[in-house]
Design a protein that fits this description.
By secondary structure, this protein is an all-alpha fold. Helices cover 72% and strands 0% of the residues. 35% of the residues are buried.
Amino acid sequence: MLAFLADNALSHLLIGPLTALFWRGAWEFLNRHLFPDNPELGAWICFAIGNGGLVGLALSQNLWTTYIGVEKTCSIKWLVGYHLYTYILGVLNVFHWRGLWELLDIYTGVNGISCLASFVIGQCTLWLFRCSKTLISPPLVVDIDNDPAFFLHSGRFHAKFVMSMTNIIDSIFTVVFIHQMTVFYWRGLWEVFDVYVFPENGYASSVICLLVSFLLHGLLCILQPIFNRLFRSAEKSDNRKTWQWLLETFIYFLGNPVCVTQWRGVWNLCNEYVDPSNADVVDLTLHFLSVGVLMMMACGHTVTTRGCFLEGDNSVDDGCMFPNKYFRHWMEKQMQKQEQAVLLPQQDQQLAQDQQVVVIENKTTVLLSNGDNNNDKYPVSVMMITVL
């Protein structure tokens, strides 16, 4: 329980804000330098680069896995390959989101109807495709950098990770449709606060967002164990999948606003306090500093979004718990090492016994094959008794 609370505190107070600062630094830099006099063109360029780059990474996931693989966190290959991949993927995510977000603002405006429609379309579409878990982000998720699935991008239809027409279609559909719906949802909820919550007072609006995020996260810390128990109880039900899908859908519906409100609070507070005259220096410093700290914590991959996650697919062990394990991850790793240290001598002993049995069987076969009369059975029996 203490590790669970520590993980939620760390992700809410440190990992979540650092991830938001990484995104904000790149996003605001693009706002000022990518065709600032022609925002429509800048948005389309972002949209094209983001979608093209993410589809390319999704289709090349096997190459990354083959040539870099899962290395120990102290190797040069891990330091260069993993962190370079994380940064490229994170920046492409920013391009992707900024492109669609800005295009929606340009063509539909920033008003109550536009943001509510964006929110409803995004949420309902993801419910329809049973993948609203894809909306989740820090502080409710933490990606550790030594994950065996580090380079894998799961598609909506979970096509096999091989180069095939099915995998190509699944990857393209996930990037250019499912991920677009996550942007619809985030933009809609974000701009609801822009329009209705102290629109003339950026500081007050940001503080309210941070308070909402903190209170909702606290509520989820109470609800997660309860929902997790219900999730496990549903395992014995005839309608197991339906109940588990409903439980996950509801808990994630409560959890997704935690992410949006925290990011908006951190983002807009920076807007209030960053001096426009040195905004580039501050934004880029925060951008690189935040991802650098996360990489040193071995959770730099948290700044990225990839793949598609379905409600009702969690194992009984995971249940309705949000995947923001940090301390628990390393504790589980340590426990696995201790278990292996105990099991390894037992496995070696079993292997030695198996080899002994093989030797006995081989000797028995030789004696039987060389015997000329019935008296050969006595040496065989004496030998087996002696060895055993």
